[in-house]
Write a structure and sequence with these properties.
This protein folds into two domains: 258 residues, Zn peptidases (Aminopeptidase), CATH 3.40.630; 115 residues, Alpha-Beta Plaits (2-Layer Sandwich), CATH 3.30.70. By secondary structure, the protein is α+β, with helices and mostly antiparallel strands. The radius of gyration is 23 Å and the shape is elongated. Helix 1 runs antiparallel to helix 3. It has an eight-stranded mixed beta sheet with strand order 1-2-4-3-5-17-6-16, with helices on both faces. This is Amidohydrolase. It comes from Microvirga terricola. Keywords: Hydrolase.
Length: 384
C-alpha cells in the first residue's frame, strides 16, 4: 500500500517529537533510539546501531542480488536557543533543530515505511541516519567504522532543505556542491608582566593584531570557481580582562574555506606559514589545531543524473541555482567512498534561514523528499 495522508501525519508527528528533544553533535543517543523504535515496524532486514558514534543504518534487501544504494540523513541539532514559538519547540535550553535534520530524518523514516511494505526488486537500500554532521566529524566516523564495509554503497544520495529557493523546487548540478572548510585555532604564548613594566614580559599583541587582517587577506571570497578561497576570523582573545596585567597569551579562531580539497591544502599551508612567521618575530610559542574539518562535497555526474531523473519524473522543478554553496557538508566524505550526489529542496524564498533561531523545518517538504528518493530507488533497483 502506498504511503497515504495518515502515514504522513504520523511521520510529521514523529518529526516534531524529534524537534522537541534535540541533541547536539556526538550526543545523539536518545535520538538514535527514537529512530530505531520508529523503524522497527517496517522490519528492516538489518540494523546497524552505534555506527560512527550514534549512527543508525537500516538495510532493506531486494529479492535478487544487485547494487547497494545509500540514502543519508542527519541526527544532530545545534547549540542555539530556539525562538520559533511553535508548540513543538525544543525542550532543551540552548539546543534546537534549526538546520532541519529532524525533517531530513522524517523523510528517511517515510522511505523506510514504504520499503517495509514493498521491497526493491534487487540490490539493497541502506538508510543512514548519520551523527555529528554539524561538526564534520560524523561522516568521517561512519566511513572509518569497520562495519561500514558491510553497507558500503555503489551510489549514495542525500538532500538538504534550502530556504531562499522556491518551495518544492530542487537545485542540483554535477561537480562542486559545498565547500571544504576547517576551523583553525592559533594559540600564541609569551609571558605575562605587570602592566607598569610590559618590557619584562612577551606580549602577543602585535602578533594577533597583525594576523587577523593578514589571514583575512588570504581569502576574501569572490566567484565560486576553482580558485575560491575565504578566511573568516570568528573569535579572538588576548590575556585576561584586567588593567594591571600585560598579556602573555592570545588565541585566534579562523574558518578556512575553499571549493576544492587541493585548494584547502594550499590555503592551510599559507595560513600556517603566516602564523609561524608572526609568532617567531614576536618571540612567542605557537600551537595550531583544527576542528570542524569538512572535505569538499562533490556531486558525481552519474548520481546527479539518477536524482535529476527522479526529480523530473515526480514533477519537481529543477535548477542549478545557488550551487555550489559556500557552506560545508560532510556528505562529501561519503562521496569519497562511492559516486554520490546531494540536492537542495526549496523551503521558500522568504523562509527563515537555517541556523536562525526562528527556523523550523517545513513539514510539507516531507512528502516531496520522500517521493523523490523512492523514485530514485525504484529507478535504480526496480520494484516488487
Amino acid at each position: 500500500m502506498p504511503l497515504n495522508d495518515t502515514d504522513f501525519a504520523e511521520i510529521t508527528a514523529w518529526r516534531r517529537e524529534l524537534h522537541r528533544y534535540p541533541e547536539v553533535s556526538g550526543r545523539e543517543a536518545a535520538t538514535a533510539r527514537r529512530v530505531q523504535d520508529f523503524l522497527a515496524p517496517s522490519a528492516p532486514d538489518q540494523v546497524l546501531s552505534g555506527l560512527g558514534g550514534h549512527g543508525v543504518a537500516a538495510v532493506f534487501a531486494g529479492q535478487a542480488p544487485g547494487p547497494t544504494l545509500l540514502v543519508r540523513s542527519e541526527l544532530d541539532a545545534l547549540p542555539i536557543e530556539e525562538l520559533t514559538g511553535a508548540p513543538h519547540s525544543s525542550t532543551v535550553p540552548g539546543v534546537a533543530h534549526l538546520c532541519g535534520h529532524d525533517g531530513h530524518s522524517a523523510i528517511l523514516a517515510a522511505v523506510a515505511r514504504d520499503l517495509g511494505r514493498k521491497r526493491p526488486q534487487r540490490g539493497r537500500v541502506v538508510l543512514l541516519f548519520q551523527p555529528a554532521e554539524e561538526t564534520g566529524a560524523g561522516a568521517e566516523a561512519v566511513v572509518t567504522d569497520p562495519r561500514y564495509a558491510e553497507i558500503r554503497p555503489d551510489m549514495a544520495f542525500s538532500l538538504h532543505n534550502a530556504p531562499g529557493l522556491p518551495f518544492g523546487h530542487a537545485a542540483i548540478a554535477p561537480g562542486p556542491f559545498a565547500c571544504a572548510s576547517r576551523g583553525m585555532r592559533i594559540m600564541l604564548t609569551g609571558k605575562t608582566a605587570h602592566a607598569s613594566m610590559p618590557e619584562t614580559g612577551i606580549s602577543p599583541m602585535r602578533a594577533i593584531t597583525r594576523l587577523m587582517p593578514e589571514l583575512t587577506d588570504l581569502g576574501r571570497g569572490g566567484p565560486l570557481d576553482a580558485g575560491f578561497t575565504m578566511v573568516t576570523i570568528t573569535h579572538s582573545r588576548m590575556g585576561e580582562p584586567a588593567f594591571g596585567v600585560a598579556p602573555g597569551y592570545a588565541e585566534i579562531f579562523a574558518t578556512l574555506r575553499t571549493i576544492t580539497d587541493a585548494g584547502m591544502e594550499k590555503l592551510r599551508e599559507e595560513a600556517e606559514a603566516l602564523a609561524h612567521e608572526a609568532a617567531e618575530e614576536a618571540g612567542l610559542d605557537i600551537d595550531i589545531t583544527y576542528e570542524d574539518v569538512f572535505a569538499a562535497s562533490m556531486n558525481a555526474p552519474e548520481a546527479v543524473e539518477a536524482l535529476r531523473a527522479a526529480l523530473l519524473t515526480e514533477g519537481v522543478p529543477v535548477t542549478a541555482e545557488g550551487l555550489p554553496m559556500r557552506a560545508s557538508e560532510d556528505f562529501g566524505r561519503i562521496g569519497q567512498t562511492a559516486p554520490a550526489a546531494m540536492f537542495l529542496l526549496g523551503a521558500g524564498e522568504t523562509y527563515p534561514r537555517v541556523h536562525n533561531p526562528d527556523y523550523d523545518f517545513p513539514d510539507a517538504l516531507i512528502p516531496i523528499g520522500t517521493k523523490v528518493f523512492l523514485r530514485a530507488i525504484r529507478d535504480q533497483l526496480g520494484q516488487e
